[in-house]
Each structure stands twice: as C-alpha cells, then as structure tokens.
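$ run holo --ligand "copper (II) ion" --emit tokens
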Amino acid sequence: MLSRRGFLAGTLAAGAASQLRAQSSDEARTVLRIERRDIEVNGKSASVLCVRQPDGTPGITTKIGKPFHVRLENHIEEPSLIHWHGLTPPWQQDGVPEVSAPAILPGGSADYDFPLRIGGTYWMHSHYGLQEQLLLAAPLIIQDGSEKADRQDIILMLSDFSFTPPARIYADLRSRQPSMMNMQGLAMAPVKSKPDLNDVNYDALLANGRTLKDPEVVKVEKGGRVRLRIINASSMSAYHIDLGKLAGDLIAVDGIPVQKVRGNSFPIPVSQRLDIELTIPKTAAAHPVLAVLEGERSQTGIVLLAGSGRLPRLSSQARMASPPLTLDLERTLRAVEPLADRKADRTHVINLTGAMQGYQWSLNDVVWNKDVPPLEIAEGERVELVLTNRTMMPHPMHLHGHSFQVVAIDGSRFAGAIRDTVLVPPKTTVVIAFDANNPGWWSFHCHLLYHLHAGMFTTLRYV
Ligand SMILES: [Cu+2]
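-- output --
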C-alpha cells in the first residue's frame, strides 16, 4: 500500500511526466496553417487560399510508421476544415464538416493523431464550401521506404483557376439553361450523343501553381531516374498526362501500387493520383511533362531539365483537342496486392443522377441534406457499391476512410486497382468493393466540386 507521501510523489511525478510528454508531443506536431496568399496568374494578381507549414512548405511529406501528428490552424476570415484525401483516419478526424467534425472557426485550431500504415501519394484539401476552388489544397506524401537515393521524387500538382469567385461560378451554373445533352442522359440520349465534359471555363490551368508561360523547371540528372507523383487537385478538370518522347512506368494509382503499365499518356480524373517512374535520357535536354485538359486543347505542366538543355517555348494550347477520358487504362490495371477473394455480404446500388433544372446533381435521385439516412453497412462485411451513371457527364466517385478495389466495369469482373476515387463515365456501370474495417460515419461523393456542392453526396455509417 502506498503511503500518502509516496502516493503524492508518485502523482506529481506522473503529472510532470505527462506534462513533459504533452510538451514533447506538441514539439513533434507538424503545424499546418490555412492562410490567404496572393498569386499572379497571366500577369494579374489574385487572392487565394493555401495550407502550408510555418516555413512555407505546402502540405506534408512524412514517412510510413510515423504518426500523423498535426495541428491545423485556421488563419483565414471564415470557417474551414481539411480532408486528408485517401488516408484512413478515425472518422472524427476525416475533415468533412457536419459529418466528421465541426469546421474550425477563424483563429481556431484542431489536432490530428493517427498512425500512418500505408505509404503513397495523397493530398489534402478543404471540404468546406467552395474553398477548394480557391486552391486550398496541398500534397500529402507518405514515403514507404521504396524511395531510392538514385531516384528523384518530383511532385506535380494540377489545379484549375478562375478569377471569378467560386460562389459566382456556382450561381452561374445553377442559372444556366441545361442543354439537351446535359444531365438526364437516359431519357434522351441519341445514339451519337457526346459526353458533356467541362462545365466551367477556367482562366488558367496550373501545375504546381504556375502556367506554361512560366512553368516550374525541375533539374534532373542525365540518365537519372525520376518518380513523378502527380496529383489532380483540380476542382472540375480531368487531364491526359503527356510525357512526350519519354516512356514511363505507372507504378501506383491513388497511392497504392499497381502492376507496372508502360506508356507515355495516362488519364487522370479529378482527385486521382498517378505515380510514374521515368528514366531520363543520357543527353542534355528539356522534357516537358504536360497535362492536357480532357476534350480541349488547354494544357499545363512542368519541365524536367537534364544538363544544360535549352528550355522549349511551351504553348498553353496543345496542337489537337484531347479525347474524353475512358476506362481503357482502368480495365488493364491490376493491384499488386488485391483484396482477398470473397463474395459480397452487402451490395448497394447507387445511380449517379441529375435533374434537368438548376444544376441538381444527386445519388439515386436524392439531393444530399443532413436528413438523408446513411447507407447501412456493418463492420466486417465485404461491401460492393454498384455505380451506374445515368447522366451525360463523367463523375469521379470518391469514398472516404477506405481503399476500394475496382472489381467490374460494365459487367466484366476483374481484380482491378485499389484506389479511393474511380471515374464513372456516362452510361457506364462500375462496381467497387471494400472491407468495412474502419467503423464510423463516412462520406461518398462525386469529386467534381460543384456536383458535390449541389448534392451529389451521401454517407455510409457503421459505428
Ligand atoms: Cu459529378
């Protein structure tokens, strides 16, 4: 039995120790600040948002096995909240206002603590209102130990930029007369109908915050190896990555390894990531890595410069318009570590829907509001979601808190890529499967910002 003195001394010691622990854990905490900043686009200045460390580093690069130990501070004049896209935290730390946690008020902060068990290329972005359109996004890289000293890691983050305030863009979309092609494809789709690709006309497409008039130039070694970590942080724009004369090996999608696919052109829908390995030729040269907007000629990109190669003049317009994105690549992707073979315990059919009037995007014809009941699932189940696009626009569908496997496209089953966002083109059915192994209240939605904002969003819940 402890004497009172011994007990007190023990309590004090424990108190001091826990205080010390708290101090040292605060020291180890990475601070991220949501801040306003000015950028220049096409010679004009614009006030946008960002999430960066006190030394100006955008986002975070960390290591697998280290805890995600972050204090997020809100230094802007409105509430905000950041979603850790592709990570699988406890649901209360997922960063979706009204679902996982309240938004952080101006001047406030929130702490995040969870283990990082999977490496890869992820990102972070605001899930509050339309802030993502103001570039409130940043890379979130988790090194998994496969990084090699002789291989250079290069991040390429894509964004779409408009001088028009996002609320105005949204109001214009809602008041626009729907075209015959738009929205409700099924009822009226003539045989030759084309998908409807780009709702918003942007003033610029950015790669690491810059246009091709003044692109980022990254020095690379002649004959060296490079790993491109490409993040499509755009609000509404999908691209074809064009490696020009270089051939690359696609080694991971949405952070998760796939069996290598060699190529020089790869599609990237909104919010997806591509990890591509390149070998730089041994001669001095400049190698542009371009991203061409789906269905258009507009492009952006960076330049890899080997030796004293001359910088080429790059046009912000490709020679030819690019085609719509397809699932041709998706069909060929195979996860390095697929899900265990298992029958679904539960299947939810989710139609991607839209109404003719007023830019109403929905799931199963339900426009999201807080009273919409969550989709039911139970812990331990293998769940399949059958996603059928009944509209004339492609929708990149994103599940929070879990990685899923693409297991069927239009009735053909296969053990496809494991990822967190899948593109569902018009008139297409994609089935995704995941194990319900992270209980909580999770979001599932279209990642096109204005579709999400209009209500193409629902939740799954098992707590
Ligand atoms: Cu959508």
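-- notes --
The longest strand covers residues 30-41.
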